[in-house]
Write a structure and sequence with these properties.
Order of helices and strands: HHHHHEHHEHEHEEEEEEHHEHH
Radius of gyration: 28 Å
Number of domains: 3
Strand content: 15-25%
Strand order of the largest sheet: 6-5-4-9-8-7-10
Distance between the termini: 57 Å
Number of strands: 10
């Protein structure tokens, strides 16, 4: 394109007459292929209008279309300015959000699974938001289930979460206080099993009592396997004895969510008293000799009774993203009474996962 064709556009920019600049640029963009110089000013026009994504798109088109070092340098400078503006806006938003003491309390930022055909585009946005290269960003986004991506002040996490959502990346955030405020009932046994069932259980304060509920109150189910570790002796490559933790078994947990009461009703194979209350088929004859068979019967009964209720069972990938972070969280309960020789972050990871499922669905209910 002749330099003269750009002169009116340049003059309009110099006089800050962006309306005229837009009118002049529009027909020139329709030429095929559009001139890199026109693309550059189209990018600048979008930047002035605070349309960051459109400006970035035009700047990148300039870099792809030109061999002119001067134009390429201006496009790179434009991209750097856009990034600086985004960072400044984010800092201001975080400062405003965390100024409220309630918004400076700890919380969690969770990424949801993203469809395979959307991952490449999403990775570009994710990389920009968190200052990663696109290749690394793709591996940060979960293929299935949820990923605990970050912990920190809930106000800051909300800013990042909203940026992710605006970029089409599904994410949500919850404060730790919301998890703490849920009621958790650890079931010991069924006292009555009918349309209005009753369990003997312990509440979150360790008090034992009876809880009655109707099956239609249950709106979500959550299952999880929690590894039980034992220390074993092994030989390394030099045939030296070493001790390490190895998974010897799994505890099975089955949560029922009753959002109308802000409650989780928790069953666990390690703590359910199969010889008390309602006896399942063959339990008396088995004499408690097979915990696994008894648990399978209880689990199958819950599955059959609640077959129309959504089941969440992607705990393991969530836990793998959470267990190394939860050491840093003070005051996260788990309400699991497993016989462990040492504390394990798998337990609070399951309680966090189940609690997030309940809170996630509560936030989306009409």
């Amino acid at each position: 394109m002749a330099h003269a064709d750009l002169d009116p556009i340049i003059a309009a920019f110099q006089s800050k007459d962006y309306k005229t600049a837009a009118r002049l640029i529009k027909p020139l963009l329709q030429r095929s292929p559009p001139d890199p110089g026109v693309l550059l000013y189209a990018a600048k026009l979008q930047a002035v209008a605070n349309h960051g994504e459109a400006a970035e798109r035009y700047y990148r088109q300039v870099l792809q279309a030109t061999t002119n070092p001067k134009l390429a340098m201006q496009a790179r400078q434009g991209l750097e300015q856009l990034e600086q503006q985004i960072q400044d806006q984010r800092r201001q938003a975080i400062a405003a959000a965390t100024a409220d003491p309630d918004h400076s309390k700890p919380g969690f930022l969770i990424l949801e699974a993203i469809a395979p055909d959307q991952r490449q585009a999403a990775a570009q946005h994710f990389a920009r938001i968190f200052k990663l290269d696109p290749y690394t960003a793709r591996f940060q986004m979960p293929n299935r289930g949820w990923r605990l991506y970050r912990m920190g002040a809930i106000g800051e996490l909300q800013v990042y979460g909203q940026e992710l959502r605006d970029a089409g990346i599904p994410a949500f955030w919850q404060p730790l206080d919301a998890v703490r405020q849920l009621h958790v009932f650890r079931v010991q046994y069924f006292q009555d099993l009918s349309n209005q069932s009753t369990v003997i259980c312990q509440n979150e304060h360790g008090q034992t009592g009876a809880l009655s509920f109707a099956w239609p109150e249950v709106t979500q189910r959550v299952k999880g396997l929690l590894p039980i570790f034992e220390q074993v002796v092994d030989l390394n490559s030099r045939r030296q004895v070493r001790r390490k933790d190895a998974t010897q078994d799994y505890a099975q947990v089955y949560d029922l969510h009753i959002p109308g009461r802000n409650s989780i009703v928790r069953f666990c194979d390690c703590t359910y008293q199969f010889q008390s209350g309602v006896m399942f088929e063959d339990d008396a004859a088995m004499g408690g000799r097979s915990l696994r068979l008894s648990w399978n019967r209880l689990s199958q009964l819950l599955d059959h009774t609640l077959d129309a209720v959504p089941l969440w069972s992607d705990f393991t990938p969530f836990a793998e993203s959470a267990i190394n972070q939860l050491d840093l969280v003070m005051g996260l309960p788990h309400y699991l009474d497993l016989l462990r020789k040492a504390e394990s972050t798998w337990d609070p990871a399951f309680h966090l996962y189940s609690s997030l499922v309940l809170l996630y669905n509560l936030s989306r209910s009409p």
